[in-house]
Amino acid sequence: MSDYSIYVLEYAYSSQFPKSGVVYGAHNQGTIKLSYSYVLLKGRDRMIMVDVGYDNVDYAKELNDRFGVENWQDYAVVLGECGVRPEDVTDIIITHAHFDHMGGLARFPNAKVYLQEEELAKWIWIMSLDEKFQFLMGATDPSDIIKAVDLARQGRLISIRGACENALPGIDLHPAYDTHTAGSQYVVIRNDGKAASDDVWVLAGDLLYQFDNLEGQSPEDSAYIPVGLAYGSQTNLLLVTDEMVKRAEGDTTRVIPIHEERLKDRFPSRLSEKGLQIIELAVGDGQQSHVSA
Ligand SMILES: [Zn+2]
Q1: How far is the CA of 196 from the centre of ligand 1 (A)?
Q2: Which end of the chain has fewer CB within 10 Å, C or N?
Q3: What's the CA-to-centroid distance between 181 and ligand 1, angstroms?
Q4: Cβ–Cβ under 8 Å, residues 145 and 105
Q5: pTM for the whole thing?
Q6: Cα 37 to middle of ligand 1, angstroms
Q7: What spacing in Å lies between the alpha carbon of 68 and ligand 1's midpoint?
């Protein structure tokens, strides 16, 4: 019995991303393909997204080009593969405010947005710093922060303080302070709706980029490795990685790094006409697969 269909939808990728940017300390290990994705949760009467990518215009386009991202496709095209339009989306959970996760907010006119209070407040503080601190703004579009504040003005921002159980039915939010960003959060889906669930999925945001961060670089060396880019504590990243694994009862395949290109090999998937991956983690009761006929 699954409440939600769960899809990781690739909307762009970088075919030659430096591995050292993904796995801490992986110097001189060349490049990897990095997926840029968001997650769609199709429920009975809600259409939820976890992160919303970015609209490839203005400063986001500059960042897109700076990071060497290719084949960006618009929301109607990517979501259309699962029969969804942007205006159908009722709720958006933002894991953190980097441009490739929060940049697309304005494209979802009917959604409420869930973001950690600490994340928004700290970005406003970082924006106020001297330009010598611009490293901290490396993956942030200031206009996204303004848009989030404006959502509060419109009554569409749900500002989350710390852990929040059942933020949406069967979905819990957990903070990861001082990790990849100041107020990142990860998402736990209890897909059978039970408090002590036997069907947990953990969406890791950028607390993990790849399986390597979670499962180590080889079966013989399965120690956690922090992501290659963190604005906070590497120690906290390792601790929250362990916390996520424990919430998944030790099953690392249930902890999902959305930048991981190899998810397509681990779960049912297909390639869209545009050359982007559609990865199906779960099919909700009474719903149809969008991956197999
Ligand atoms: Zn990020």
Answers
A1: 30
A2: C
A3: 7
A4: no
A5: 0.97
A6: 12
A7: 15
